[in-house]
Specification:
The complex is a heterodimer of chains A (311) and B (290). Chain A is mostly helical. Chain A contains 12 helices and 2 strands. Chain A has helices at 2-18, 23-31, 36-45, 52-64, 78-112, 118-132, 135-149, 168-206, 209-216, 221-259, 264-273, 277-305, and strands at residues 70-71, 76-77. In chain A, strands 1-2 form a two-stranded antiparallel ribbon. In chain A, helix 2 packs across helix 3 (36-45). The longest helix of chain A is centred in the middle third of the chain and has 39 residues, at 168-206. Chain A is elongated. Chain A starts with a helix and ends in a 6-residue tail after the last helix. Chain B is mainly alpha-helical. In chain B, 76% of the residues lie in helices and 0% in strands. In chain B, helix 2 crosses helix 3 (80-116). In chain B, 47% of the residues are buried. The chains are: A mainly alpha (311), B mainly alpha (290). At the A-B interface, helix 1, helix 6, helix 7, helix 10 and helix 11 of A face helix 4, helix 5, helix 9 and helix 11 of B.
Amino acid sequence: MLLVLLVVVVLNFLMLHLAPGDIADTIAQTMGGADEQDMAELRKQYGLDQPFFIQLFNYVVRVALLDFGHSHFYNLPVFDLIMERFPATLLLVFSAQILSLFVGILLGVYAAQNPNGLSSLFVNMFSLFGYAAPVFWTGILLLIAFSLHIPIFPVSGMRDITIESSNFFVHFFDVLRHLFLPMITLASIFFAYYSRLCRASMLEVLGADFVRTAKAKGLSKKDVLLKHALKNSLSPVITFAGLSFSAVVSGAILVETVYSWPGLGTLAFNSIISRDTPVLLGILIFSTLMVTVGNLLTDLTLKALDPRIKI
Amino acid sequence: MLQNEEIEEPAIKPVKEIFQTFFKSYSAVTGLIILIGIAVMGFIGPLFYPTDPFDMVWMPFSPPGADGFLLGTDYLGRDILSQIINGARVSIAIGFSAALVSCFIGVGIGSFAGFYGGWVEEILMRITEFFQVLPTLLFAMVIVALFGSSVLSITLAIGAVSWASVARITRSEFLRIKELDFVLASRSSGSNNMALIFRVILPNAAAPIIVQSALLVGAAITFEAGLAFLGLSDPNVISWGQVIGSNRVYILDATYTVTFPGIAIFITVLAISLVGDGLNDALNPKLRSR
């Protein structure tokens, strides 16, 4: 896990190094130009005149000390900026992931009981849709439908700043109301995959001997399905959910941009527009961290489901 | 060379069978027809509908159907129908070439990892795992933001971040096939490692790789659209994603500017995935009987 982060940091540095232009150029551009002497001064100030490996070492050490550099657009340390936005993305990513797992598994179990029925067709159709529809487009369509034509949900943001209440629950429901559309949009891609996978794996397990034993013991249908079959068919779904974490984070960036959700995605979008490279690189490091933590959680869940698995 | 002919003759039949299975499936054929239609539209369409997609031909935000513009005009008064026709070329080209790039990287890494095993496999699969953990869109965003948004850098960026699945599939196929007898036979008749990898094992591992690459084409098209939506597209060419991206600010006023290119992407990617499913059924002999 630490190795992954180290590689991201080194990769970041390599890209910065290989890309045309450096920090001095960017600053000179925003100042409206600088002469050779000033440029040399700037480069010295940022340590750009030092040998490659020393620069690399310095960069890694700085990141390890949580110094991601300075955003010249917001005029704030990148770390503070990211920390301010991070909770929103975390909320969106994890709520969408949990929702899509929940709905996906439910639908998968339901469809598996009737392999050629309507629900199975629905699962297959939806997984095609989830693959083919660009997530930001789904977002825009939902936004148009449920914020413009049927104004149930707010158009953008995470909070209504006009609410003046000290009641925690008022704010809680306000955030929930804002969260709803982005969460549904993001979940719409993944719940289809999960339900398809869960359906397939349930079908396999339902034919197994231990399920027949459970039925023969006279257990109720609910017990057989949920306690015996489902528990044993979950591990491919959870494994896939873990592998999907990076895709969920990628999707979250687009969804956030659609709904102006104040998370890392909108920050990344703004930093592209304002050519704020340190922020973009910081976000890359942080979202990789988020994915690795997500994978760790997946492994722990898998282990809880199946004690034979060793991490 | 009589022996060679004898070996080749039964090898032709499966190909015929593959085609037959593929063309028996309605959905796969539908997908293929749609795909060909879109490609024809992109490459020949401009001859029949010569409006320049960059030209400001009418006032901005003219709704679809009005004033003789079937799909309306965008925020600069450019014809959206023309943008969709011309965007097809770029979107499909980027989709295919990006998938080709990731196919090359993925097959290279996966085949060496699967064939050599040991520490080579360890290192290469670590790299692959790393690219699975990396949020691909963000990484591509960083590449394009740093190296400039040209069609080339966008294609390479998409290709460079989405090869992990191909590598994993190639590796697992290689692990399975390298133990088979015909590989041993070929080795004992003096084939060197490179010949074994690329001429003996790879052709036999091709089926799942082809299916995965077909799906990657669709993924690359949505990926390009996503990048363009975030403002990272080549300003000198029109792609579907770029039409959405450049009109995104006005979605609440002019819905259709975003809806139509989105539908174009949706249909194309859907067609690709239908073709991919058809290929999967046709190429995978285990599934064929089901």
